[in-house]
Amino acid sequence: MGMRVKLEGITVLALDVPRLTSFYRDVLGFKVIIEEGHYTEFENDGVRLAIFAAPLMADNTNGHYSFVEERKGQAFELNFECASPEDVYVMYDDFVSKGATGITAPKVTSWGHTTGFFADPEGNIHSLFAVNPVTAENA
Fold it and tell me: Deepest in the core among 7, 27, 72, 114, taking most CB within 10 A?
């Protein structure tokens, strides 16, 4: 077996790190474990979730243009799993009431989930979902 890589972390590049940090902390409920002006890291099991200043990433990559040009369209999606479909509806409403932008209200999908979509303050669209329980109707 050859060498393998493992996804260790996801870094969200931000133009306004403090604003996005407060959203992930206050709206989505992630606990901050490191907070600097240009970098925030959250407590999360499995995969490290962090926010980093996009202009500083340009510094780290010899000024690569893609970190300083205006972003268009969606480049990534974070998927937040809930314990039950009912929780998706409650948490979606909670997120929107705290400042998330509602994109698509939760609904039962053809792929067996209850899913809603919301955007963070920088316009990144993410999903909130739960796997639907198997019942006699959909078995």
Answer: 114
Taking the model in full, what pTM does it have? 0.82
Q: Is residue 138 predicted with pLDDT exceeding 70?
A: no
CA 114 to CA 116: how far, in whole Å? Answer: 7
Q: Going by C-beta distance under 8 Å and a sequence separation of 6 or more, which residues neighbour residue 130?
A: 81, 82, 83, 84, 85, 87, 88, 113, 114
Residue 97 has pLDDT above 70, yes or no: yes
Q: What is the pLDDT of residues 64-84, one digit of tens each?
A: 888 878 778 887 899 999 999
Please tell me the number of Cα atoms within 13 Å of 121 on its side-chain side.
19
Number of separate helices (H) and strands (E) present in the chain: 3, 8
How does DSSP assign 30-77, residue by residue?
Answer: PPEEEE-SSEEEE--SSSEEEEEEHHHHHHHTTS-GGGTSPP-S----
